[in-house]
Amino acid sequence: VQVVWVRNSGCLVVCCCFVFCRRPPKLRQISWLLFVFFSSDIEISRAQSPKAVDVLAKEIGLLTDEIEIYGQTKAKVRLSLLERLKDQPDGKYVLVAGITPTPLGEGKSTVTIGLVQALTAHLKINSFACLRQPSQGPTFGVKGGAAGGGYAQVIPMEEFNLHLTGDIHAITAANNLLAAAIDARILHENTQSDKALYNRLVPVVKGVRGFSSIQLARLRRLGINKTDPETLTEEEISRFVRLDIDPSTITWQRVVDTNDRFLRKITIGQANTEKGFVRQAQFDIAVASEIMAILALTTSLEDMKERLGKIVVANDKKGEPVTAEDLGVTGALAVLMKDAIKPTLMQTLEGTPVFVHAGPFANIAHGNSSILADKIALKLVGEKGFVVTEAGFGADIGMEKFFNIKCRASGLVPSVVVLVATVRALKMHGGGPSVSAGAPLKKEYTEENLQLVADGCCNLQKQIQITQLFGVPVVVALNVFKTDSPAEVDLVCKIAKQSGAFDAVPCNHWSDGGRGAVKLAQAVEKAANQKSSFKYLYSLEHKPLLEKIDTTIAQKVYGAEDIELSPAAQSQIDRYTRQGFGKLPICMAKTHLSLSHQPEKKGVPTGFILPISDVRASIGAGFIYPLVGTMSTMPGLPTRPCFYDIDLDPVTEEVKGLF
Questions:
Q1: What is the pLDDT of residues 388-397, one digit of tens each?
Q2: What CA–CA distance (Å, rounded) separates 399 from 417?
Q3: If phi over 0 gives left and psi between -120 and 50 gives alpha, with beta otherwise, what is residue 657?
Q4: How far apart, in Å, are the Cα atoms of 434 and each of 344, 454, 460?
Q5: One-character DSSP codes across 214-232
Q6: Is 108 a catalytic residue?
Q7: d(CA 478, CA 485)
């Protein structure tokens, strides 16, 4: 299906062209089903030729000077568009979340794509999907890519899943430049006098010594209102050149966009040239970098630069925060990120527009695509259009952070939540056998079992209740698999409606594309017309950090009986409160495989004590993130990673094996 967005009328012309159209109807149906069920995602993606990205941009109302084309199918969109369309009313804002998933994922990206294809290609309503850029970690690890699947995916899927326009590489470069600056500064301060440091930091160039603009800003923060380097006293020079970073308080880690468990704990500085400055450190996965969160939460280039400068990397020996601005690296970070701040335009299999921008994980970060992509899309679709974005993992994690962190930063108010469920996941929550990536599903998951489904709906009911805490209508989208029986599907939809969902709809977008999600689109359109009483879960001003973590998120959202703070976590909370960061929102780093901290606890665990092992601060991004239990910020590779199946045809240059 190819879709053309007719700008003058705002309607769509849909042109269908199926491969098997000349065969008799029965053979045509059989051939279509065989193609659907025996083709991989990448084969389905390649069976459709995407329209040129400049054509797509013109269709949706972008001007020629508002796009920067990358190849034939991708383009960066410039932020100047927001100024041009500032008086245009926003469209409706829809969030796709989910129940607690199996390790295989339950298809939120697929539902997101199927929904916008249904809205635009079949109901003639302007819509935009806003998705996160996938990390190479899961792409080559267990879960695979994040382009959707079947007949509801972003194309070309290999370009979507591999590199895209280089944003994650830019984040990695910026993150590691800051990490290098920290250790280099400690080394130089340990090995040089105040005078030597000053002469190198403020060198004489062509007979003139002068401060850079970022050095002048540091002087002002220190209360030194001087601009002539020759007039500083010895005491002022010492305060200026010495950050006095306490190495034991460094929280800024190096990153790489690969699942590499052996980088979880490393020793740096072992070369003789580092003069004995050795310390333990670690790598995080790139999408866990605070710079990724900043990219996702920023509202302009100026705002991004300010946020980058606020990044707290450590404390000094007096217990005061040391920032990227103190290190003098803010401008360089902004330069590395100047292209990454622009959302990337792509398209679905049915030719509808997609923005791909930012990619923070939801278990170790806030798990949402960028505010900028959402804001641009809301202007482009018009007042009657829809922007559909996705929150990572279950509603208890990604959705909670979407509302309490992203919506606070953006000022946008959601119209509807689409809650994705599968019979497979519900059976797991009902007591079914464990589900493991790469292992065949047990018969409980491939044969009808109404009792398992009914028992597992407790998790669905809990996630509906969490959504209702925010006052937003919820539509349940049951992502149907070929092994699901009609009775199981009907049972889930019945229980969902009885539990307070506005509607519950079975979806077949994986096999039927947008056509298989038309009923979902109709339900979303109706729900969006309902009165929303959206509210945040907690006040930033009136609740201290501990109360936000404990009584609000741990107890009200997860269902914990209480929390248990480690001494290190309590010390960090006290420190951040003393430093003036107590009014920031909370971003819990917790397993996505359970409402509790224990991945094996399915359904709706109760009576558990949630252990908080550490608390860290992302001041530039604007949140505090507690680490629950043994949560790691660097995933590892399984015994059989996805990369075993990924290959390149040296003749055609086609990528094989991605999913």
A1: 999 989 999 9
A2: 9
A3: left
A4: 38, 17, 18
A5: HHHHHHHHTT-----GGG-
A6: yes
A7: 12
Question: In the structure, what pLDDT confidence band is assigned to residue 25 with cuts at 50, 70 and 90?
Answer: very low
Annotated catalytic residue within 92, 132, 602, 616 = 132
Residue keyed to tokens 């008086």? 87
Task: Render pLDDT for 31-41 as a digit per residue (tens, 0 to 9).
Answer: 445 445 557 78
Residue 303: C-alpha distances to residues 306, 372, 499 (Å): 5, 11, 41
Residue 283 appears among annotated catalytic residues: no
In the sheet that holds 623-628, the strands lie side by side as: 562-565, 609-618, 623-628
Amino acid at 260: D
From 454, 374, 376, 368, select the one nearest 93 (Cα to Cα). Answer: 374
**Which amino acid appears at position 617 of this protein?**
A
3-state SS, 517-539, equals HHHHHHHHHHHHCCCCCCCCCCC
Using the CB atoms, write b or e for 83-93: b if 16+ within 10 Å: eebeeeebbbb
Q: Is 310 assigned a catalytic role?
A: no
Known catalytic residue: 519? no
Residue of 140, 393, 402, 608 marked catalytic: 393
* Placement of tokens 């992509």 in the chain: 373
SS3 state of residue 439: coil
| Nearest CA among 587, 577, 573 for reference residue 622 | 587
DSSP 283: E
What's the gap between Cα 38 and its chain centre? 31
Residue type present at position 153: Q
Q: Does the model's pTM come out above 0.70?
A: yes
DSSP string, 578-647: HTT-TTS-B--B--SSSSSS-TT--S---S-EEEEEEEEEETTTTEEEEEETT--SS----SS-GGGG-E
Per the annotation, the verdict on 110 as an active-site residue is yes
Q: Would you call 143 a catalytic residue per the annotation?
A: yes
112 is a catalytic site residue: no
CB-based contacts of 302, cutoff 8 Å, min separation 6 = none
404-430 b/e (C-beta count within 10 Å ≥ 16 → b): bbbbbbbebebbbbbbbbbbbbbbbbb
* Cβ atoms of residues 628 and 592 within 8 Å: no
Residue 84: active-site member? no
pLDDT of residue 27: 41
